Amino acid sequence: MAERTLLTNARVLTCTGDRHERPIAADVLIEGDRITRVAPGIEAGPARVVDLRGATVLPGLGDAHTHISWPLDFVFDHATVAAAPPAPHILDVAAVTRTYLESGYTFIIGAGTTQPMDDLLVKDAIDRGLLPGPRIVPSGPMIAEAGGLGGDGEIMEVVANAAELRENVAWQCGMGVRALKLFISGDGVVPEFPSEDVYMNDEMLLAAAEEAGRHGAFLTTHARGSASVAMAARTGVRIVHHACFLDDEALKALEARRGDIWVCPGLHYLYAVVNGHAEPYGITPEKVEASGYHEEFRSQVEGLHRLREAGIGILAGGDFGHQWTRHGTYAAELQRYVELAGMTPAEAVHTATRNMGEAAGLPLGQVREGYLADLLVVDGDPSADVTVLQDPARRRAVMKNGRFAYVNPEVYP
Ligand SMILES: [Zn+2]
Questions:
Q1: What are the Amidohydrolase-related domain coordinates in residue numbering (predicted)?
Q2: Ligand 1 centroid to 65 CA: how many Å?
């Protein structure tokens, strides 16, 4: 018989409700790796009973734009990380996945590796129980177009046409990659490649989407300008990262695929940069000015309001791992959604839970019968104050696959 665990005396934020949902008093029965019942006063029969003493249980959090290749002390030195000796580097990567798990994150979607096999190697070790870490939808090397941002090939794969892109996607999928990362716009932080630049074309993206689909994989794109967002939406991309600028055409293209496409903004990253948090690391006010990030930030905030009105799914996530958005502070993204994008705290939590499961097509992100028992136990109510998710002292435990994967040593002796 499968292992049975009964969580009692819990407040359950199920993430099955609307944007105003609040925790309910309930027990949660877990059998094997699944949640099998959520109700008050469950008589479970033989089971391991864990009294949560009034703590809140919610689904483990998810992040849809992760770079586990970036070590805990990463300072934007991509080329150095790419050239680092692989053996010590992969231990750095393992430290990052452990940090995700201990921060309450049980699910991550890769957004491009710096050494090609980083996501795949660590995922394999995690899945075999050798390392602590979240469930991973692995990415591989990012793909750029010749002549575009990343087209120097220093840390990315470079393709020139649809045939080469298809071949690269097939190669990555053959290794096990399931989230392809394509660069289809510039980025203000590299002024020679401004955000409104568009790289690749419909033919290339359609070929890539078809090839990915054959392997059960999906496309994600770095797309900051509105023309690149529109192209991503009309060619079958699953996750659009950044989407800093949205014109009517881009919004319409996204609306046409509502429920089949998600936007992952990375709002906290822009917030941190425009508020000077990167200044100690050489991103001077002059550089920020030159990047146009002030305007991108204003535009992204406005865009998020429009996306919400249009019912486009938003995913939490966003390039964490710089010293100004350190690993372990991932839930700051949810705080920005509440402060800047008009979300309720519960709605912000949904971007990291229910929406993640829907985007990945996996039964996770809800405390619900039949769903994977990936859970987070915290002191306090994230649907009243989402910042409780950022406090390590409030994080009591993390479950993955129905087992305790992290227990806070400060809380439980
Ligand atoms: Zn990124």
A1: 56-403
A2: 6
Instruction: Tell whether the model's pLDDT for residue 413 goes beyond 60.
Output: no
Percent of the chain exceeding pLDDT 90 equals 95
Å from CA of 328 to ligand 1 middle:
16
Burial 353-368 (b: 16+ CB within 10 A, else e): bbbbbbbbebebbbbb
Domain 61-330: CATH superfamily is Metal-dependent hydrolases (3.20.20.140)
pLDDT digits (tens, 9 = 90+) for 45-76: 899 999 999 999 999 999 999 999 999 999 98
In the chain, CATH 2.30.40.10 covers 4-59+363-407
- Looking at domain 4-59+363-407, which of 2.30.40.10, 1.10.760.10, 2.20.28.10, 2.120.10.30 is its CATH number? 2.30.40.10
212-254 residue pLDDT tens: 999 999 999 999 999 999 999 999 999 999 999 999 999 999 9
For residue 31, report the distance from its CA to the centre of ligand 1, in Å. Answer: 36
